Amino acid sequence: MEYREIEIEIHDSKLFTKNLERVNQKELFLKRSDNLEADLNLIYFLLDYILDERAIIKEEETIAYGLWCLKLVRHEEFLCIFEFN
Asked: What Cα–Cα distance (Å) separates residue 4 from each residue in 47, 50, 76, 82, 84?
């Protein structure tokens, strides 16, 4: 699937992006929940932030998402998205 020229790969238990290197951003990785629509909305939110604001998300960065606080942790070539407590 594609969103704003960024490929989103959906596999059994994970989602990840491709093509973010064109904006000097590490690819995003999210472990899937039971709600694919909510997972995609989270990815869309982060992609909009990166593309619209020209933001570069760095490892260990936290980002507010609704009532949640997200933490992005580097693992290999990805920034993995976690809920931060």
From this structure: 8, 11, 24, 23, 27
Cα distance between residue 68 and residue 45, in whole Å: 13
Between CA 57 and CA 28 the distance in angstroms is 10
CA 83, CA 63: separation in Å to the nearest integer? 10
pLDDT one-digit tens code per residue, 22-55: 999 999 999 999 999 999 999 999 999 999 999 9
Q: Do the Cβ atoms of 79 and 27 come closer than 8 Å? A: yes
Alpha helix positions (H), the chain = 36-53
Q: Where are the domains of the chain?
A: 2-83
Q: For position 56, what pLDDT does the model report?
A: 95
